[in-house]
Amino acid sequence: MLKDEKAIVVFSGGQDSTTCLFWALQQFKEVEAVTFDYNQRHSLEIECAKNIANELGVKHHILDMSLLNQLAPNALTRSDIEVKDGEEGELPSTFVPGRNLLFLTFAGVLARQVGAKHLVTGVCETDFSGYPDCRDIFIKSLNVTLNLSMDDNFVIHTPLMWLNKAETWALADELNAFEFVREKTLTCYNGVISDGCGECPACVLRKRGLDDFLSRRF
């Protein structure tokens, strides 16, 4: 049934969203990607997303979300704030309040304009950093809200929701996208493409999952 339908992928150019883009290209007849420019720490993230979408032949929308930068000072919107994990129950310094709420809401508005009924996002509850807007309960709640707000029938897909990072690498491998995802995506908080800086929390998580996957693959 999905083979006849259209999807919008919320796309950052990182490991997770790129894996989701490959997944969507197999699942749906037509796929478009949307990237949000919120003056994030590294503009290279947007360039990376552009290049990937162009290489895969996917129509790519870039939406201005600079207001989010003004409202949510944190390590991803301010270069003078240190990237660090949360301590004693606190959220990580990289948590952007309202980001997934806004991204998925605007993706829904875009989807309505282009005739798409499906939204795809790479949020994950298994290997996440404690972000409340990556939880399954939030996604289900927002799905209902989107449908009620626009009197429509969208479906939000979260192919990575219950996968750890090793399993996400395995999914990329199943999609024949392992090398592409490893070499061309930007996950690093310090703006280093591919395997990254190796030191920030995002790189540590990515490498741990990669090492785990490779140890089972060979």
Task: Present the secondary structure layout.
Elements: E1 6-10, H1 15-27, E2 30-37, H2 44-56, E3 59-64, H3 66-71, H4 99-114, E4 118-120, H5 136-150, E5 155-157, H6 165-174, H7 178-184, H8 201-217
Helix pairs in contact: 1-6, 6-8
Helix content: 40-55%
Content of β-strand: 5-15%
The termini sit apart by 36 Å
Question: Compute the gyration radius: what is it?
Answer: 16 Å
| Sequence of secondary-structure elements | EHEHEHHEHEHHH
Characterize the main sheet: 5 strands, parallel
- Outline type: globular
Care to give the gist of this entry?
The chain has 8 helices and 5 strands, in the order βαβαβααβαβααα. It has helices at residues 15-27, 44-56, 66-71, 99-114, 136-150, 165-174, 178-184, 201-217; strands at 6-10, 30-37, 59-64, 118-120, 155-157. The radius of gyration is 16 Å and the shape is globular.
Explain the overall architecture.
The protein is an alpha/beta fold. The radius of gyration is 16 Å and the shape is globular. The mean pLDDT is 88. 39% of the residues are buried. It is 44% helix and 11% strand. The protein has helices spanning 15-27, 44-56, 66-71, 99-114, 136-150, 165-174, 178-184, 201-217; strands at 6-10, 30-37, 59-64, 118-120, 155-157.
List keywords for this structure.
218 residues, alpha/beta, 44% helix, globular
